Amino acid sequence: MELRQLRYFVAIVDHGSLSRAARVLHIAQPALTQQVRQLEEELEAQLLHRSAQGVIATDAGKTFYEHAQAILKQVTDAKSAVAQSNDKPSGTVALGIPQSVSGALALPLLTAIRATYPEITLLLTEELTGNLIVQLKSGRINLAVLFDDGQLSPFASTPMVEEEMMYITRANSQYGAVKKKTVTLAQAIKAPLILPGLQHGVRPRIENIVRSHGMSLDNVIEINSVAILKSAILADIGATILPVAPLLSEIERGDMVALPISGERMARTLALCASKNIPLTNAAAAVERLVLDVTDDLCRSGKWLHAEGLARE
């Protein structure tokens, strides 16, 4: 198996066509087809399904595509690590962040990167926590912001921030707590709760806290998209328990109301994680330091609402 075969295969899947991939790669289509055939023979699996409309990856091809992307990225990182200067890091760094964190962190981080390291290209990936863990393990991303649920031992992790989770409803909602400044946990879980799925880091935290009080979540509407979750809350389909960051603009406009949950410290801890097995390039290490600095600044200034920066060794 050769690196060029991996590049050829990834290009075919990305373009959905052997002819288009051949043009981009500047290779004759018969030669490209032969390379794919050799790859399939070596793997003893069909990687592509060919039709009049183009080509798509088979199930085996989809699995191989993920590994091929990770391998090619690590090769690129290795070349960058050799060529980079400690004084002026450059190259591409892939950072994964959960959907519910991007509203607070993404724009300030992009601004800081452009000002501090103009020669670094930052690729931001917004995903569910479970997907970020898979991508970080495989090397497809260099760094990831993950929820510290006590299971981050496979990674090199640095504490970032602790966010308070609050009970959030539409303004004047039927599920709102009228003229109250707080709600109890028992009151909060009476409403239909719109929550992310269990593969999202915040959901297991809520489930564990509710169970520790001898209660259960019996009326959950599961939505993994922040945009759809917002629409559901504004339609008064239910309430949610989340940090305020992903819903901040709606809360500041007065479209939503966020109340602390009394009697129980409901919070989630975020950590910045890297692989223990794949060394960081100089550029990735620079981004790692900058993420922590930006997080601390946002917490100190109060721009990351109901969030507290965590001490580090």
* CATH class division of the largest domain: Alpha Beta
Biggest β-sheet: count, sense, barrel?
A: 6 strands, mixed
CATH topology of the largest domain: D-Maltodextrin-Binding Protein, domain 2
Domains (count): 3
Q: In percent, how helical is the residue content?
A: 40-55%
Question: What structural class do helix, strand and pairing data support?
Answer: alpha/beta
Q: Could you give me the name of the CATH homologous superfamily of the largest domain?
A: Periplasmic binding protein-like II
* Strand and helix order: HHHEEHEHEHEEEEHEHEHEHEEEHE
Mean pLDDT: 87
- Uncertain spans: none
In spatial order, strands of the major sheet run: 4-3-5-14-6-15
**How much beta, percentage-wise?**
15-25%
Q: Give the number of helices.
A: 11
Radius of gyration: 23 Å
Number of strands: 15
| Second CATH tier, the architecture of the largest domain | 3-Layer(aba) Sandwich
Organism: Herbaspirillum hiltneri N3
Domain HTH lysR-type: 1-58
Protein name: LysR family transcriptional regulator
Pfam families: HTH_1, LysR_substrate
